[in-house]
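Students often ask what a holo structure prediction actually looks like on paper. The answer is less mysterious than it sounds. You provide the chain, you provide the ligand, and the output is a string of discrete structure tokens encoding the 3D arrangement of the protein together with prephenic acid.
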Amino acid sequence: MSNTTDVSATHAGLAALRERIDALDTQILGLLNERARCAEEVAHTKLAEDPNAKFYRPEREAQILTRMQSLNNGPLRNEQITHLFREIISSCLALEESMRIAYLGPAGTFTQEATHKHFGQAVATLPVESIPQVFREVEAGRVRYGVVPIENSTDGVITHTLDMFVQSNLRVCGEISLRIHQNLMCQHASWQSVQKVYSHAQSLAQCRFWLDKHLPQAERIPVSSNAEAARLASLDDTAAAIGGIQAAPIYGLQIVHDNIEDNPNNTTRFLVIGDQVVSPSGNDRTSLLVSTRNQPGSLYKLLKPLSENGVDMTRIESRPSRTTNWEYFFFLDVRGHEQDAAISKALEALRQEAEVVRVLGSYPVAIM
Ligand SMILES: O=C(O)C(=O)C[C@]1(C(=O)O)C=C[C@@H](O)C=C1
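The corresponding structure tokens follow.
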């Protein structure tokens, strides 16, 4: 076969494949709009049942995503399928209701990335300057939900968030788990010569060994957020910043080294806060706030009803009560939903022992 025939055969093959892709896209387009019309009907049905109905249903979204992951045979990876379906659901939900979500800002932080990972791109977002401010925006009804960090696998719990639940009546409506990838970014490619590295203290801590090895001469300067670090690095060509990829385009920086975190499994968990009681999804977690007098054996008495009812505790944190010395609040996470028989029996027994037992929320376990 001559070369000319080869080339035209390839062209014919490519043209045929593109024709198939066009036909598939036409089908996908039709199906997407059919799905969107269904979602609009769902909204009318919900409103007919209850004029105050909630349109956002985290348990249903989690079920859809889990089902799609279990049906997926590739070649697209589950992570990509989840991302695509999140965006489809996000656009369908936007037809039912336009939502605004407050998050711990500024723009360009991991909390912004987590917010869009969970709610997709079809929501409006409001960056605010502190964790208490996220709670206030939701409490005042200026936004529908808020997103705040709760714990990092390297640095532990974010106590500001735990403390807010003591004062606030808001509930936990969801959790988001985000793999944190740290990047070195600066104005130019010759990053080896930078004299300063700006970042949030936690991000600096997460890259300690990488910095010791690759930038031992650079001063590490902790600042209020990774986005602020990127802003400072955009003003100083002797400086670099560490943060998530989303900060680089906002501040006109180049990513000169990616994935520089010391622990490749570095994950941050975020909570979605709102005033919604979420129905069971089949794979849920429940967060509890419990307080007790500081007497011998009091923690044991709190944990006994859980173990006796076979409830699996995934986390416990204690925080000193701010009002009474030597009294503690305990934050517990357990597997399951508050409507599950085992958890409701355990809660009943716990209420006999503890001064305060509050269910902060039952919500679907984060989908990766
Ligand atoms: O099933 C619903 O309740 C819907 O509103 C539909 C839908 C979807 O697009 O599938 C949209 C938003 C909800 O958060 C959950 C699911």
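DSSP finds twelve helices and 15 strands in the chain.
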